[in-house]
Amino acid sequence: MKTILLDMDGVLLDSEMVRLAYIRRFLKQQGIEVQAEALLDLSGVSNRDAARRLARRFELPLSAAACQRALARTCRGLYLEAEGLRPFPGLEHFLRTVKERGAKTGLVSSTQCREVLDALNRFSLLPLFDVVLGGESAPRRKPAPDPYMHAARFLRARPEDCMVVEDSPPGILAGKRAGMFVVGLTAGSLPQAVSLADATAADYGQLLRLALQWLSEQSGFGA
């Protein structure tokens, strides 16, 4: 079964700059003022790992666990109510079209499941996915291949029959290490390095054309 697996932040939603604003708010609560540019390396990183990095980088007087809890509290409303958070233009058409062509679709995010579901329900996207996996769904997180391998097993898809759509180096590495065809999407307000991807797309129009070509080239498509 041909399968297309997508990340959420920076792929479904133009959320990376919005998320960095929440992280800056958390740091301000700790008495630290930074520019967004100083936090760009946290894009594509789970809140758990981001909290650990922040605790070390800024020598916060919090344990890693306490830092994670505090960051989670600050970011709690991001996917439910943040202004400026929106799906990318063409996303819904893309998902409906590839499903009409017989492909399975999955969401594979480093964000916690509860927050992923908050976002999908807010924008009425949940019915368009055959599987949804959050950050706690696999033993190891991106850039390990586990999240994408877990999604493929759930959908009974071989790695070589999977396309991954990612926007950040950790996600691209995860897809590549899983043995999947990886597309780097650069549509977001915070474009990142996608040179390790097998192909790139600047928007969902380009991504749809690429996906349809990929689907048509797969031997036994629909089997």
The CA-CA distance between the termini, in Å, is 6 Å
- Rounded radius of gyration (Å): 17 Å
In DSSP terms, counting alpha (H) and pi (I) runs of 4 or more, how many helices?
A: 9
Tell how many strands the DSSP assignment holds. Answer: 6
Average pLDDT over all residues:
92
Give the helix proportion (percent range): 40-55%
Strand content: 5-15%
Please state the overall shape, judged from the principal axes of the Cα atoms. globular
| Low-confidence regions | none
* Largest beta sheet: strand ordering: 3-2-1-4-5-6
Q: Give a quick account of the main beta sheet: strands, pairing sense, barrel closure.
A: 6 strands, parallel
Can you characterise this structure?
With 223 residues, the chain is of the alpha/beta class. It is 42% helix and 11% strand. It is built from 9 helices and 6 strands; from the N terminus they run βαααααβαβαβαββα. A 6-stranded parallel beta sheet has the order 3-2-1-4-5-6, sandwiched between helices. α2 (47-57) packs across α3. The longest helix has 14 residues, at 16-29. It starts with a strand and ends in a 6-residue tail after the last helix.
